[in-house]
Amino acid sequence: MSPSEMGEVPASHGSSGPLGSSGASASLGAAGCSASAGSAASAGAGHHVARATMKDVAALSGVSLKTVSRVVNREAGVSPEVRERVERAVARLDYSHNVHASNLRRSSGRTGTVGALLQDISNSFSASLLRSLEDVARDQRTAVLASSLDEEPEREIALVRGLVARRVDGLVLMPATARQEYLLPELRAGLPTVFVDRLPRGVDADSVTVDNLAGSRHAVRHLVSHGHRRIVALGDLRTIQTAELRLQGYREEMQAAGLGDEILERADLRTPEAAEAAVRQLFRTGTGPRPTAIFAGRNDLAVGAVRALRALGLVHRVALVGFDDFPLADLLDPGLTVMRQNVGQIGSEVGRLLFARIDGDAAPPRRVVIEPTLIPRGSGEIPPHE
Amino acid sequence: MSPSEMGEVPASHGSSGPLGSSGASASLGAAGCSASAGSAASAGAGHHVARATMKDVAALSGVSLKTVSRVVNREAGVSPEVRERVERAVARLDYSHNVHASNLRRSSGRTGTVGALLQDISNSFSASLLRSLEDVARDQRTAVLASSLDEEPEREIALVRGLVARRVDGLVLMPATARQEYLLPELRAGLPTVFVDRLPRGVDADSVTVDNLAGSRHAVRHLVSHGHRRIVALGDLRTIQTAELRLQGYREEMQAAGLGDEILERADLRTPEAAEAAVRQLFRTGTGPRPTAIFAGRNDLAVGAVRALRALGLVHRVALVGFDDFPLADLLDPGLTVMRQNVGQIGSEVGRLLFARIDGDAAPPRRVVIEPTLIPRGSGEIPPHE
DNA sequence: ACCTGACATGACAACGTTGTCACACGACAG
DNA sequence: CTGTCGTGTGACAACGTTGTCATGTCAGGT
């Protein structure tokens, strides 16, 4: 990681005497002394002094605008004395480069910013994804604008518009919309875009997803192999692609195991509380044969299931496998068996794809699919109890 | 939440016939038809068509640049026919407003972006904080640039420089540096800045922090009140303000309880693994009288402690109180007793302060201190065992 | 002395937008 | 018919920067 950002200049000097002998007529009032090491210096909470521009630096150091530009951008072909003079003025005026003006004029047109629209930045999946994307971006000297969509399609559309208006260099999208035709003009205009966790619909673009179908079949097969027949599936909103796929995997595997008659789904569960309520209702005593195992299609649905089983005293009697790993799942009692998606891998794959596109890769869209792995921790290995 | 972003225009129309009768000479090649609802349309992965500008829209609709600007900004004083004509051209050309050029020229100088430099976006504390900040920001039609500092001072300085160069409207900082004099020029220039979780040093600025001293004293008092005397404290890097304060609170409370001789600290623990190792070493059998309780100064140190106690079979024999709540702490066995910081409240308080400053509030810096609350869940209420 | 080339520097236009001001037009009062 | 006003529209400069090209200076070769 390279610590210096673009277009900046060394720190203050010991002697801050008058600048070079050139007769530049600079009427700037900004003081030049640096703060002493004493108690907290006040920020002078009053009128805001306008920021110094290259013009100010040029006037103070007695050179032309263009020369200041050269110094600030570390271009070659400036004599050491002039460079020194300009850098002094930069430090004295606290000049800070204006990247927006710079990018406007520059030919490359890069803004050094990418946007990431995720489901909810505060949940561990989105947060970890964002973090590994950030790490890739930092290496490319790029900042990340992050927002949560909360499964609201209109918000997605409004935010994409905002990001395009900001001329981001690229876009990472975990879509909340069912179809993304609205993105066509941007894709046509060459906006590098990578879908994550959910495939694009109605448009063609790069994507990094998990094999939800195979993963959920694997999870269900695991339960079946431990002797379970009455397995209930908990799922999120069916309109969410991944949620529906995981339920589909559950059904397919049940069919394949000859358990088609036992299929029992509770879908459209939005919150841990909803999952908890559903499980409580399912395992209420006296309602005939109860399920002996649960497949939870999302991490916080698994958490809700654990809460319910805990309350019912069934944590060690009902098997449970979740989709999505999360911190501390191993510390529960019993440890929670999950299908883990390697979030770090997903995030860095997204970053690699995105920056390859930004760097001009024009190959046809790629679909990266990552296989989730089963992490047995105890809860998924409980044998059936009637 | 208002769904529409600034400066945009209605969607496409049914009939896309030729534009108004004006004889504008527009030589733009962008096709106008919208995608059909069939299978995924390709993004035409080839040469990138340059984005249409207001000039293009003006040419196509046969009006002046300024009139397009008026329409796009929804200014009054444009005849309905002209407005309609311009909007048609905007839709036809997929025109997207360039906020950078706009802000450059505009007097207000706002960029509609704030920066948030936090410890680590993937940890639950930073992530939740970011999320609640984002919610406030969205109401203000502002985007958030987020980065992780990982306690690296140079990264903080480089990223702040980058954010200033981007002319963010405000800055939220969980500093990794020991002192922040480097921020003085920005503060003097009126950059709204709110420190979070840690107080500013060497500069004066708004802050939202938790009362770490009182909180850790509370935690230790809780253990003492349950009969513990040999209480060990686990702490993060002493150079981190909050870590040192929590250790200090531990020492103060131990002194106050007449347990000065029992003070036992393990500081500078950076990771859960380090905490786990420290606890394992402390509770190794045969090393004389062992502590009967643990105070963990940060959430993942508590997690490490739980791992160690679990491995040693001591989870129900050694008391444990953590600082910082986290998801699932209630589902452990026993539930983890913690001092909870209300992260949502911290985040929205930070947002309120920040946007008040952005809106021109010039009052002296405010220091908001939030009291953490004790959440007893079992682990902190275990009586001493020899 | 003259020409050549390398080097340092600056003048100017341009990026895409908006603030300011001026103009053209029709309506209306005198 | 003239003068005044209100309304819609456009010309132009400006925001802060960089790409292009021209100019000035000086060293070295003939």
From TrEMBL, chains A, B:
GO terms for molecular function: DNA-binding transcription factor activity; transcription cis-regulatory region binding. InterPro entries: HTH_LacI (IPR000843), LacI/GalR-like_sensor (IPR046335), Lambda_DNA-bd_dom_sf (IPR010982), Peripla_BP_I (IPR028082). The keyword Transcription applies. Coiled coil: none annotated. Residues 1-25 are annotated as: Disordered. Residues 10-25 have a biased composition (Low complexity). Keywords: DNA-binding, Transcription, Transcription regulation. It holds the Pfam family LacI. CDD domains: HTH_LacI (cd01392), PBP1_LacI_sugar_binding-like (cd06267). Residues 52-106 form the HTH lacI-type domain. The keyword Cell wall biogenesis/degradation does not apply. SUPFAM superfamilies: lambda repressor-like DNA-binding domains, Periplasmic binding protein-like I. PANTHER family: HTH-TYPE TRANSCRIPTIONAL REGULATOR GALS, LACI-RELATED TRANSCRIPTIONAL REPRESSOR. This is LacI family transcriptional regulator.
